Amino acid sequence: MACHDPARVVHAVTDGEITKVGWQNQKAHRGKKAGAWYRVVVSGKEKPTLDGHMTPGSNPPKGTVVHVGDVLGTMASPTNGHATGMHDHHMEWDSKGKLIKPSGDSPLTNGVRSCIYGETGPSHPKPHCGDDWVIKK
Q1: pTM of the complete model
Q2: Would residue 68 count as lying in a domain?
């Protein structure tokens, strides 16, 4: 696993196992079709999660058991996927697999939400499907 810049570290917000690591869309690494680009999925009993726009290779491997607060990797800088700046895109699902509004637990130390689930705006013309987190300045 890569050395981590403490200012860019993404932490687990649930206990579980890393079940997916890698590119969300193998054919599109930038632009609107790229989605969360490089992402880590944790399948937790409480709430499965996805963290996206991460640095490739900064994460533990698939199959790793993680607990709340464990390092999942780092935010990519420069960012990747469909994004305008460095941030962590965080999504959560309920136990039946339905996308839900995230709990509000920050995956970043000193993180603040820059875009909230359901919001629309210039970079999200459709309702946003997760929370975007940035480092508080």
Answers
A1: 0.86
A2: yes
